[in-house]
Amino acid sequence: MKVVRLVKSSDFKNVEHLVKHSGKGMTTMPKTPQEIKERISWSEKSRNKKTNKPNQDSYLFVLEDNNRIVGLSAIYTSVSLKKPSVFFKKSISKLESKSLNFTKDLDVLSLHLCKQPYSELGTLFLKPAFRGKGRGSLLSFSRFIFMSAHQQRFDPTAFVEIRGFKNANDESYFWNSFSNTFFNLDFFKADEISYIDNHFIMESIPKYPFIIEHMPRKVQRVIGKPHPNAMPAYSLLRKQNFRTNGLIDVLDGGPCLEAKIKDIPLVQSAELFPIEIKRNINFDRFGFIANPAIDAFAVVKENYAFDKDKKTLLVSAKVAQALGLETGSTAQIN
C-alpha cells in the first residue's frame, strides 16, 4: 500500500538512500548526511511546536510503497519573512511620445522583491522506478490535505516554483543566453547558492528592466515555460486553482504559480468522520483518506464506503492500519 506521512528521525537511512537518486538538478534536496539530519529535525520541530502560527517552518513528507520510502515532498512557511524573495517579473512597459503622437507597449523583465510572507510547496521527488500509478499525485496532493487539516499553520498564499525549460541535452537557454551574463558561476552552483541565500542575485543583476524583444528568440520562447518533466506537476497544480503570477525564476526562467490556500479545491472539500473497520463489504468509493492528527498524519488513496445513516466511513483493516486508526477514530476525506 502507498502511504504519505510526515518524516521521522528513524527514516534517516532510507531518506539518505533515496536522495542519492535525485541528481544534481534537485537543488532543494538535502545532499549530505548532515543536511538530511537537519531537514528531518526541522520538520519534527515544526510538527511539535506549541503554537499554530506559521514561522519559517518546514514539513517534510515521505511516500512509502510497501514499506519502502520512494518519494519526498515538502512545505515551507513564512518564506520571505526575514529576507525578500527575488524573482524577475514579466510586465508591460508603456512608452509614449506626445510630440510624435505614438504609444508602444514593450514586454519587459524586471527584478521583483516578494516581501509578503508566503508558504511554498517544494522538494517534490519520486524515485524514477516508482513514477506512475498515482504515486506522484498522492505525494503532491498530500500536502494540500495536510494544509486543509492544519490551515492555521500556513500563510494565506501558497507559491510553487516550477522548474524552467531545458532541451534534450539538459541545456537551459534562459541561463546560457541571458542569466549567466550576470554571474561568475555555473548554473548548478548559482542555483545551489540561491536556495541558501538569494541576496547575491540583487547584488549581481542591474535594477533596470530588460526588454524581452531584444533577447535571443530561443530565450524569448522559454520565459515562463516549464521543464518537460515538470508538466505533469504543472497540470495537477492548475487543477487545484494555481495560476501563474508573472514571476519568473531568475536562473532558469521557470514560472511561479500562486493560489490562496482557502481556494484550493482539496482544502475546501475536507470533511471529518469517524471510521468503522469492515470486512467483506463493497467499498464503492475511491479517494483520499487521511489521519489528520498532527502527530500521526498519514494519507492513502484507497477504496472505502460511507454509511449515510451513521455518517461513518467504512474502511478495510489494511487501510486503518496504514493510517494508524481504529474503529471510532476520526478520519478526513478530501
UniProtKB/TrEMBL annotation:
InterPro entries: Acyl_CoA_acyltransferase, Arg_succinylTrfase_AstA/AruG. This is Arginine N-succinyltransferase. Gene3D superfamilies: 3.40.630.30. SUPFAM superfamilies: Acyl-CoA N-acyltransferases (Nat). It comes from SAR86 cluster bacterium BACL1 MAG-120920-bin57. Keywords: Acyltransferase, Arginine metabolism, Transferase. GO terms for biological process: L-arginine catabolic process. The keyword Transport does not apply. It comes from the Bacteria. The keyword 4Fe-4S does not apply. GO terms for molecular function: arginine N-succinyltransferase activity.
